[in-house]
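Figure 6 in text form: structure in, sequence out.
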């Protein structure tokens, strides 16, 4: 299996943990031995952080591979994958490192395993600089399942910055191949709903204030829809530590989903957190794309592996998406094109079509 090592420059484009996630997942799926250099070279704390390490170790365990140079602060790793194993795998960031990012790196791999998998992911469920678990369940899951697979996501415990302590269990069965997707028809917004939460010592009033401020903000722009944001007090047996946040989802007539979210921080008033989430949702609805800015990059690896041509309509193409496309082309040899949308009503907007000729990866175990 081990041929020539593929060299990946960890300082390109996004230049961070995402390059590691995309390149090690593709390495594992395609059986490509990999070397990643200059890992997080430009960051204030260069090299591997605990959350990156737990992701790498998880991929290594998923495919019984060999991993060298994987320690905190290391800027170079080599990885030699073997056959992808099903069964139960545990990854623990031991910090508030995001369980959603652990899931991003492992999910494509276990789809091509020999048997069903259970992933036990521990860390932060609602962490900064990463999707919140509610986003994963409410937006990512229904859309990614259009590639022709199902997964089950069980939130055992929520965990927040800085302690983490959350746990999510993902169960899924392997597939023979992934189907291509077409997400280009946005439709009209039919429903806006959300969840505003507090956990630990934070007063319930904070959840109510975040929700109310978000609703007021959305109403200024979208007057004809009922906006339902549920304030929630997370109980002690469902949440570890203190945290607060809000996620708001818009659904369209064609089944597209968009989100805006924000987490409470010490010293930031609740209204501001609610408004930030609402503004983010509204911005994602203005550009005319059929996926929001967070889903863009999470779909690229699946598009690259699918059997056929996938097309998604997006707003401005994010750096994360450009990064995922670059490495999907380099490692998987998928072909992507990104073009400005030609449609009349979108001429003035920043709307793009990302098209991919997938490689049609086949799971020989199924």
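Output sequence:
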């Amino acid at each position: 299996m081990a041929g020539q090592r593929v060299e990946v420059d960890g300082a390109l484009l996004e230049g961070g943990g995402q390059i590691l996630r995309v390149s090690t997942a593709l390495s594992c799926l395609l059986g490509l031995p990999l070397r990643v250099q200059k890992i997080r070279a430009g960051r204030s704390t260069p090299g591997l952080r605990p959350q990156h390490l737990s992701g790498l170790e998880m991929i290594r365990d998923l495919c019984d591979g060999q991993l060298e140079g994987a320690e905190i602060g290391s800027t170079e790793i080599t990885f030699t994958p073997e056959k992808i194993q099903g069964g139960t795998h545990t990854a623990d960031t031991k910090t508030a490192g995001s369980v959603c990012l652990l899931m991003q790196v492992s999910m494509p791999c276990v789809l091509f395993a020999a048997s069903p998998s259970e992933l036990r992911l521990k860390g932060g469920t609602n962490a900064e600089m990463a999707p919140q678990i509610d986003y994963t369940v409410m937006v990512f899951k229904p859309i990614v399942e259009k590639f022709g697979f199902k997964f089950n996501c069980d939130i055992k415990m929520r965990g927040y910055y800085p302690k983490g302590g959350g746990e999510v269990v993902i169960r899924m069965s392997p597939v023979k191949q992934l189907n291509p997707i077409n997400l280009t028809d946005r439709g009209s917004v039919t429903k806006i709903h959300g969840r505003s939460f507090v956990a630990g010592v934070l007063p319930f009033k904070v959840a109510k204030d975040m929700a109310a401020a978000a609703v007021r903000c959305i109403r200024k722009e979208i007057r004809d829809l009922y906006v339902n944001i549920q304030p929630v007090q997370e109980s002690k047996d469902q949440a570890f530590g203190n945290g607060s946040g809000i996620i708001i989802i818009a659904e369209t007539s064609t089944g597209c989903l968009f989100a805006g979210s924000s987490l409470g921080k010490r010293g930031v008033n609740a209204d501001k957190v609610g408004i930030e989430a609402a503004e983010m949702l509204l911005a994602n609805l203005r550009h005319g794309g059929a996926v929001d800015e967070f889903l863009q990059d999470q779909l690229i690896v699946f598009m690259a592996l699918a059997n056929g041509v996938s097309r998604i309509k997006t707003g401005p193409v994010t750096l994360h998406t450009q990064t995922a496309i670059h490495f999907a082309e380099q490692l998987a040899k998928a072909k992507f094109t990104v073009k400005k949308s030609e449609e009349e009503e979108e001429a003035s907007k920043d709307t793009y079509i990302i098209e991919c000729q997938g490689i049609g990866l086949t799971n020989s175990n199924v």
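Caption detail: The two ends are 20 Å apart (CA to CA).
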